[in-house]
Amino acid sequence: MFKEIFYRRRKYATIPSEKAKKEVPEGLMVKCTQCGTISYTKELEKNLKICPGCDYHFAMTARERIEATLDDGHFFEYDVELVSLNPLDFPDYQDKLEKDMEKTGLNEAVVTGEGTIEGHPVVIGVMDSRFRMGSMGSVVGEKIARAIEKAEQKGYPFIMFSASGGARMQEGALSLMQMAKTSAVLARFHRKGGLFISIMTNPTTGGVSASFASLGDINLAEPGALIGFAGRRVIEQTIRQELPKDFQTAEFLLEHGQLDKVVNRREMRKTLSRLLDLHLVRGDH
Amino acid sequence: MAGELPFEKPLVELEQKIQELQSFTREKGIDFSDEIKKLENKMEKLAEEIYGNLTAWQRVQIARHPERPTTLDYIENLFTDFMELHGDRLFGDDRAIVGGIARFKGTPVTVIGHQKGKDTKDNIARNFGMPHPEGYRKALRLMQQADKFGRPIITFINTPGAYPGKTAEERGQSEAIARNLREMASFRVPIICIVTGEGGSGGALAIGVGNRVYALEYSYYSVIAPESAAAILWRDSAQAERAAESLKINAPELYERGIIDAVIPEPMGGAHRDREKAMAEVEKVITSSLEELSKLNGDELVQDRYQRFKNIGEFTTLVEA
Fold first, then answer.
1. Nearest to A177 among B182, B233, B309 (CB)
2. Are the beta carbons of A167 and B224 separated by less than 8 Å?
3. Which tens digit of pLDDT belongs to each residue from B20-55?
4. How far apart are CA B224 and CA B234, in angstroms?
5. Complex ipTM, two decimals?
6. Fewer CB within 10 A of the terminal residue: chain B, N end or C end?
7. Least CA distance to B258: which residue of chain A?
8. What contacts A55, CB < 8 A, 6 or more positions away?
9. Predicted model pTM
10. Residues of B numbered 155-184 whose beta carbons fall under 8 angstroms of chain A's beta carbons: which are they?
11. Architecture of domain A59-279 in this structure
12. Given a cut of 60, is residue A21 above it in pLDDT?
């Protein structure tokens, strides 16, 4: 499932990282891989990284997503100090982690914390696909689990933006067990009546799609997002036939009853705010 | 030795030699007992050497052995009054997962497991033990039923993985697995899970959220099939051997990391070499853990499961707490 994302579905253009951005002269342009429209990076960023030509949703970094979602970008971050080990002594893993830390300015593939959306307090988690394809290892699982526990303690809704190739291979079965961990914590949150809104962005596949990302009271997705359990190539090899072009897109899932709604990024904050509003206890208004 | 694996060849050759000498003794009346004894000793030593130093990949081959006991074998041998129950009430009956009600030492329990086929025809019907969403939803239905009636749940895990197919995706493979993970965490009855062969990723875990999770000595439990890992990492599925080693998927390695609670010992060479012995070991583990867990009430069982999974993970922190 990783492979496909790595080698085939790289539809997004490379946007310079926070650090690199300062060094690149203004006027750098990005070409949309879908329609070929060329836009100024700055313009694209102002436009929530949506292609003006075809509405293609470019990948957002975790920081960009938080800024676009929370009121004035105000955000109190949790567990920023948690970092991965190389518990299996997996070849090259440590090296790759360090490179991704440098590239993204993040300690891991998920950022968690709290803030408000149009005044509604929420606990939020945002994955960043630039860090090990957003894959879930021990730290990602732990940070998400702790965030859900925080939401439970505070009585806040939990909002999760997923962007992940799945469970992280380099931590072996420890990564697999993070699926059970996050789901078990969500189970308790669920029993206590907590609201969980899951937003699947491009890509949400494998062990992340098969755990917390699919467990929202409301499951939303961004247009065109790749969402699924198994990789396209694996399926094609298994069933020995070509799959339709829109297979495993958000629209495909919607059609097959697997999603509540596909929401354009421009409407996301409004949609979340409306949902949060609708879940306020009667009499609050 | 039927169904031998490549690394067992030297043993097979020795065994053949011994048999030849034995038939010589019978037919020609020549006494080869000394030679036979010598060869038998040699064979014993060789077996210890081979099975005592199995590589990760060789263990995977044993876990996948076509004669390895399946879920229905365990059910038939360790349970009585088994009544198989079918269907998910939504779409169909997935034969890659079997389940139903039975008695374990007299106590009614719900037993569920992946089911591989006994031969090619059976394997096709069972989809080689790779479930579709309806399989997981059947398992969920049976577990909910167990929870309602206060029956302990025992699951046998043995799958290469959830089926990677078009219709499986259309019907929500991810959602089916995810829902099971969440629901299993909330059941107020004891849940015991045993990996008996292949623990293939999310498709295995979907019936694996237990208070106690065990694995047979030669079974494996992995985030990804070694072949697929090799294809991604080194773009060469032939490097599966190396991937199996790197992923640390064997039972003793899983125990070290707290992923399983104990390794269930197997007869030398694997469970298929001495089924009775293997069954007896599994029976012991179920008996003792059921006894332990029966002391906990519903809340405690849920809390116990929560903690068990919450504790799994290895990481560090940049600042002192």
1. B309
2. yes
3. 988 888 888 888 888 899 999 999 999 999 999 999
4. 14
5. 0.95
6. C
7. A174
8. A223, A264
9. 0.93
10. 162-166, 168-175, 177-179, 181-183
11. Alpha-Beta Complex (3.90)
12. no
